[in-house]
Structures are given as C-alpha cells and as structure tokens.
Amino acid sequence: MRQGLSAVVLRKLREVKGVVLDVDGILTDGQVLYGPEEDWKGFHIRDGHGLVLLKRLGMRIGVISGRDSMGMRRRLDELGINDRYLGIREKSPCFLKLLGDWGLSAEKILYMGDDVVDIPPMRMAGLAVTVPGAPMPLRHVADWITRAPGGSGAIRELTDWLCFTKTGDTSFHFENLPRGLS
User: Fold this and answer.
1) β-strand 127-130 against 18-21: which pairing, if any?
2) Is residue 173 part of a domain?
3) 37 near 31, Cβ under 8 Å?
4) How many structural domains is the chain composed of?
5) Model confidence pLDDT, tens digit, residues 32-49
6) Separation between Cα atoms, residue 166 and residue 17, nearest integer Å
7) What backbone torsions phi and psi does residue 171 show, to the nearest 5 degrees?
8) CA distance 171 to 154
9) Alpha helices, H only, the chain
10) Which of 6, 56, 60, 79 is positioned for an S-S bond with 18, CB 3.0–4.6 A?
11) Do residues 152 and 28 lie in contact, with contact meaning Cβ atoms separated by under 8 Å?
12) Assessment of whether the complete model's pTM goes beyond 0.85
C-alpha cells in the first residue's frame, strides 16, 4: 500500500488488540555494528515509549526476530516485552503460537516487518505495516507504509495512531482512562 492512512487502515487500527514486530529494520535502523564482544544495535527512545503507551492501554506486544543478541534482549527486557521469539527464520509458526497464547484471531493483530521473511505473517495479520525502505514485495503486501523509517520513529508513528484510534486522546496522558483499556 501507500504512505498515509486510508479509511480502511483507520478502521483496522480500531480493531487491533495485539502488535507483533520484527526487530532489525523496525525497532532498529537495520544496521548491525560489530563490537569486540557482540553486535551493537541502536533503538529510538520514542519508539520504546510508544510501546509503553500501548501496554498501558492493555495491548499485547510480541516480537519475532530472525536475529538474537544481548542488546536486543536487554532492550526488550527494559520494555517489558516477554512474548518474544529470537533467532527465528520461519516466523509463521511463532505468529500462530502468539495468537493462541493471547487468545486472539489474526484479524485483531497488527504485524510490522521489513523484509521478505515477514511476508507470511503479514498476510495472516489483520493489518500489515512496513517502513519506507522495505523491499518492493513488502510494500505490495502492506496495508500501510509509515512515513518514518525503521529505527527512527516508525514504531512511534504506529503507536500514536493506535493510541488515538483507541482513545481519541491526542495528549497520550490517558488521565481519564483505566489501565488495560483495549
């Protein structure tokens, strides 16, 4: 699909109860820098805060990544994302396992990925999202392409729209909402 939010995407956002993310190219800019002990990854702080806001609203969040690293595990721990599959090449079985664990249908899930290994779960999900730098096959499968690139605010763009469609609140303070609203 194209950048921007269509009426169809806005309707689908209202139905989302769970978000499943790839890491490299989505939570990071996709670069892997090798250091003396392990690979290094950079995470955008506002993306992380957006995920915290989703958790406040009772949204389920999971990660399925083809890679695994200590830095990735540390960041996911900081964000309280326990539903994770790391070092996974075949993502569909993990996606289906998350659905079962969460008791949600695929139509209630938003999947965000940036490379061809993400296409199968994107096709299963109720809402498929990618980033501007994704390869063409993903841009054809995606319902929405964020304006921000992966690792540079794409997650926050997504979470802001999810929070808005769930609450109508553009301040994101959620002062009048009970925690766990979904």
Assistant:
1) unpaired
2) no
3) no
4) 1
5) 767 667 777 778 889 999
6) 10
7) -80, -25
8) 19
9) 7-15, 45-56, 70-79, 91-102, 119-124, 136-141, 154-167
10) 60
11) no
12) yes
Q: How confident is the model at residue 181 (pLDDT cuts 50, 70, 90)?
A: very low
144 in a domain, yes or no? Answer: yes
**How many Å apart are CA 19 and CA 16, to the nearest integer?**
8
Please say if the pLDDT value at position 1 is more than 50: no
What is the C-alpha separation between 44 and 118, in angstroms, rounded? 21
Q: Measuring CA to CA, which residue among 143, 155, 90, 150 is closest to residue 120?
A: 90
Average pLDDT, stretch 119-125?
A: 98
Residue 34 bridge partners (DSSP): 39
Query: Cα separation of 26 and 155, whole Å?
Result: 7
Name the one residue in this structure whose structure tokens are 């499943």.
20
Decide: 131 and 114 in contact? Cβ < 8 Å.
yes
Query: Is residue 174 assigned to a domain?
Result: no
Read off the CATH number of the domain in which 82 is found. Answer: 3.40.50.1000
The whole domain housing 162 covers: 7-167
pLDDT band at 4 (very low <50, low <70, confident <90, very high): low
Residue type, position 46, single letter: R
Q: Which two tokens stand for residue 177?
A: 């909402």
